[in-house]
Amino acid sequence: MKKIAVIGSGTMGNGIAHVFAQHGYKVSMIDINQNALEKALATISKNLDRQVSKGLLSETDKANTLANIETFTSTEDGVKNVDLVVEAATENVNIKLDIFRELDKLCPEHTILASNTSSISITKIGAVTSRADKVIGMHFMNPVPVMKLIEVIRGYATSDEVTKQIMDLSRKLEKVPVEVNDYPGFVANRILMPMINEAIYTLYESVAGVEEIDTVMKLGMAHPMGPLQLADFIGLDVCLSILKVLHEGFGNPKYAPCPLLVNMVEAGFKGSKTGEGFYKYTAGSKEVVVSSQFKK
Ligand SMILES: NC(=O)c1ccc[n+]([C@@H]2O[C@H](COP(=O)([O-])OP(=O)(O)OC[C@H]3O[C@@H](n4cnc5c(N)ncnc54)[C@H](O)[C@@H]3O)[C@@H](O)[C@H]2O)c1
């Protein structure tokens, strides 16, 4: 594999483009939004600077990485002669199905089509193409240049050969791939989201306060961050939509989203990106405080 296209240049797309380009692959970064592409290039450059200042990369490595990335607003132009596409567009099933239908028509026959989706079925995505054997999940973690894991998700029809190619490629990116099957939430979110939901239920039932719950999990379980703060960083709307996928996919009430989570999302308190969730985030300040609605 030599040439890769990344669809979507947001939080995940720019990190995925960065990692491939840093490892010598030619990358087409594609987004429908020109501003998003410009912002992504600036973010990649800033993140490369950080790697240089830590002595992890040289200035030449930085220049070579940036030279490996080309940007496109047209998918047709961006996917010419690519060996792999990694789709990291907005998490919306209709957007993703449309993208994969289009990719199937535009890409060379040998091209593998991967999705970075957190919760949408790889089997369902594969089924709208004529190459379900070459459709696979590559679930990178945020921030992509730092996090080692890639959850490699095999759809119902994904072939052994394609799975092996993606596992090998992930190792070439100095990541650790883990192969899992395609069921709701895969492995990472199937385990993480019920934990976050249970933390929210614990707060909702007044068993303990926000800081107490997070402190128990940080100091008691050696988690780097408590589940409520983590939920704020992931985005409470994202947590809610993944819980809905688990709830509907398994038909099991144990995944039912906590009513407090539902209320917070409906009220617009979606976590750090909106400035407030379980905690309040003030731009430029390192101090994070419990949101006033949870203060006794
Ligand atoms: N943010 C995370 O922590 C995280 C972690 C793992 C996986 N994911 C998954 O990664 C994917 C992207 O998430 P994100 O947080 O980077 O989203 P984001 O909102 O930051 O970026 C999405 C980008 O996709 C672009 N886009 C939308 N439709 C497009 C199209 N048809 N063609 C090209 N570009 C298009 C948007 O303009 C935007 O720039 C989602 O599937 C999400 O579930 C996110």
UniProtKB/TrEMBL annotation:
<dbReference type="GO" id="GO:0008691">
    <property type="term" value="F:3-hydroxybutyryl-CoA dehydrogenase activity"/>
</dbReference>
<protein>
    <submittedName>
        <fullName>3-hydroxybutyryl-CoA dehydrogenase</fullName>
        <ecNumber>1.1.1.157</ecNumber>
    </submittedName>
</protein>
<dbReference type="Pfam" id="PF00725">
    <property type="entry name" value="3HCDH"/>
</dbReference>
<dbReference type="InterPro" id="IPR006108">
    <property type="entry name" value="3HC_DH_C"/>
</dbReference>
<dbReference type="InterPro" id="IPR036291">
    <property type="entry name" value="NAD(P)-bd_dom_sf"/>
</dbReference>
<dbReference type="Pfam" id="PF02737">
    <property type="entry name" value="3HCDH_N"/>
</dbReference>
<comment type="similarity">
    <text>Belongs to the 3-hydroxyacyl-CoA dehydrogenase family.</text>
</comment>
<dbReference type="InterPro" id="IPR013328">
    <property type="entry name" value="6PGD_dom2"/>
</dbReference>
<feature type="domain" description="3-hydroxyacyl-CoA dehydrogenase NAD binding">
    <location>
        <begin position="3"/>
        <end position="182"/>
    </location>
</feature>
<dbReference type="InterPro" id="IPR008927">
    <property type="entry name" value="6-PGluconate_DH-like_C_sf"/>
</dbReference>
<feature type="domain" description="3-hydroxyacyl-CoA dehydrogenase C-terminal">
    <location>
        <begin position="185"/>
        <end position="281"/>
    </location>
</feature>
<keyword id="KW-0560">Oxidoreductase</keyword>
<dbReference type="InterPro" id="IPR006180">
    <property type="entry name" value="3-OHacyl-CoA_DH_CS"/>
</dbReference>
<dbReference type="InterPro" id="IPR022694">
    <property type="entry name" value="3-OHacyl-CoA_DH"/>
</dbReference>
<dbReference type="InterPro" id="IPR006176">
    <property type="entry name" value="3-OHacyl-CoA_DH_NAD-bd"/>
</dbReference>
